């Protein structure tokens, strides 16, 4: 990023390396302030707002309006209203009608706060930047400066001080430090070579954002040709998030228009250290939001056999403006590579639980989106204070089973969870606001992205003690039952039936192969072989395999269904020793 400020879609990128404002005058003189002022005035014009008509009458043209208001705001931080009126006759009328001016100031301030705001600093020497100043401290000072400018101007026009001061996060939502790390990229990835890598991220939660979409459609299909051949990449408009997706290193390249999805990755996948990615060839690469030259927009994956890299691609379109497209593609690439390595990807949730009597269990709940796996874990969490000594989430969407030393061992892929707000316990989301990213909280399928574990924990490896299929569409006589033989178990797990819950475009009771359209569906033959190997091992080792009836897809049972299932599971844990 070379410009000191850019504003596109609903994203404001402030380049602290090029320009860092330390005074009120510098802020009001900045290109960034002028761009925000222009955009706000344009929005008023589009809405045919009364405020726009009023101010246009005072200054005749839009250009005069923008220049005059910028000048007026600079005067308001050094002079009283009376002095400005005397010395600048062009402002006399507008300062007389303070109600309209205060309305404009408040509107501009609120417009700024509703933009997704990001600060960027490049970790190398640049003249006039702040690379030698602590980045966290600089973002705090920038927030203080924005508040100071707003209050100074607002109180001057009102002629009195505010009685209540709200210390809002008016500066930035997130800040990123980028560097010029590189890798010896093969010819197919030449266009990605100069894209800067994200070294560290600072979040100022709660971060509430409003992507254009709030559901995901379809499944990812294999692209026969390498998808990066015709793409147009301008490095100054792109960032790379080096993610640790399970045991794999992934380079996630995203366009600045989709900044929110790239930054949100930090709550879901561990950000790799420089020594882990500098000069290292990744296992996975995902290009998110590229513009194509000679083909229609498409989304899919491709296995680059020559370089042994699994690659994903999503063309630039508002259709992909949903975090599910970012997360699920990365998991698909991970799963495809695991299948090739002889391991079985699991779409589900795994938890390590230690009861107060000392009994320990590692329980896995398998199910597709909306089946109730995460909700059952949430119900477990509500019981934890009374019955559990400790509870660790190993994975809360995607994991992998490996057969090691004759037993099935579970590993995770993510350090966070991408959870539906509607399926959380009342009030839970508000308790976790200080570390959460909220997406479209007022819409269907509103989501919360929150860290739930550490990378060390998810990669430790846990012996599987119980595997349950999440059945969300049957009202049961008993909340949990178990299979007598491996064939019946494989049949249920492989069929992958569930009632759709609005997390995708599906409706009604649907089926997806092994409840996992993110890799196993695309590699059925290989996955079938792994399924039989793993499930036979489970039965040979007397691991309990059954169904848990979450009832999440049944109206009126969305909360009590997972809770009843969790209570029944707790009873079974107390009655049995799975170790």
The gyration radius over C-alpha positions equals 27 Å
Number of helices: 17
Reported CATH architecture of the largest domain:
Alpha-Beta Complex
Quote the distance from N terminus to C terminus. 54 Å
Biggest sheet record: 8 strands, mixed
CATH topology grouping of the largest domain: Phosphoenolpyruvate Carboxykinase, domain 3
Could you say how many structural domains there are in total? 3
Strand content: 25-35%
Tell me the name of the CATH class of the largest domain. Alpha Beta
What's the average pLDDT? Answer: 89
Helix content: 25-40%
Alpha-beta content class = alpha/beta
Multimerization state: single chain
Shape designation: elongated
Ranges where pLDDT stays below 50 over 5 or more residues in a row are 125-129
Strand segment count? 27
Please tell me about this protein's structure.
The protein has 579 residues and is an alpha/beta fold. The protein folds into three domains: 168 residues, no CATH class; 139 residues, no CATH class; 196 residues, Phosphoenolpyruvate Carboxykinase, domain 3 (Alpha-Beta Complex). A hairpin with a 4-residue loop joins strand 13 and strand 14. Helix 7 runs antiparallel to helix 8 and helix 12 packs across helix 17. About 1% of the residues have low confidence.
